[in-house]
Amino acid sequence: MIIDLRHHIFSLVAVFLALGLGIAVGSSFPGADTLLREQEKVIAQLEKDFEQLRAERRAAEETAKQREQELKVLEEFNRQTLPLLVGGVLDGYRILLVHTGGTREPETAGDLQAVLRDAGAQVAAVLSFGGQPGWAEGETLLKDLGFTPGKDREKDLWRELAAGLAQENNSPLLSALERLSLLSRDDFSPGRVEALILWAEEQADPGAELLEVALARAARESGLTVIGVESSRARNSWVPRFKNMGFTSVDNIDTLPGRVALVFALAGAGEGHYGTKETAVTLLPELPAGGGRERVGRNE
User: Fold this and answer.
1) What is the pTM of this model?
2) pLDDT by residue (tens digit) across 66-83?
């Protein structure tokens, strides 16, 4: 709107200059008084229009300030009420966060982990494979890790890793992969995990068979809850692929509704596809009528 107003102003200035030139030229011709009066009428109308534009601009600026203030109030309201909504929903729940690579969003990651903590959950580890060159060694790597020859031994690797993550003890395979610099983990806390969040980040290829996806598949086969998430700003959506893999999905994890949807989906509110994109079925899972402090259909 400001750009349009600027164009109007430039146009009006040009008209005023043209009128001034016209007055100067017209005064030298017969009947100049009549022409001058007409020009004065035009100038008066232009001044009226210009004042109306200025009033509209002031009103627009005031409206923008009001909307900005309302947004700040809403954000603060959400921040203060979020713990009341999700508090205790995931008490004792241990979660594995797996990144697919691409451009990281540190602020979003921090907000997500904060919401999970508010819900009572613990992020047991943040894993990233990062496309390390060593994975390209394939058969040699599998042999070095102790997997016997066979067409399914690559799947066996992911099954063993996922099964190890679902146990109380630290996975020896996870430790071995870390020693070989084939995997990195942050915020690690040994112990059994109950769910895996597969975070599809920007610039990761939704069509690629990524190591993280293989782990997520194996984790689900091992009994872990698996939920795929992505940012609302993601240009290449992973949701169609999440659907094909049978994963519950949240397509707006960078927003507060998306993080609330994730918490209740983890708590067992129901499988589905939540968010704001065309592939979403609804914004949120069905929330408990009694408030957020009750667990939702999840085994104690």
Assistant:
1) 0.69
2) 999 988 898 888 888 888
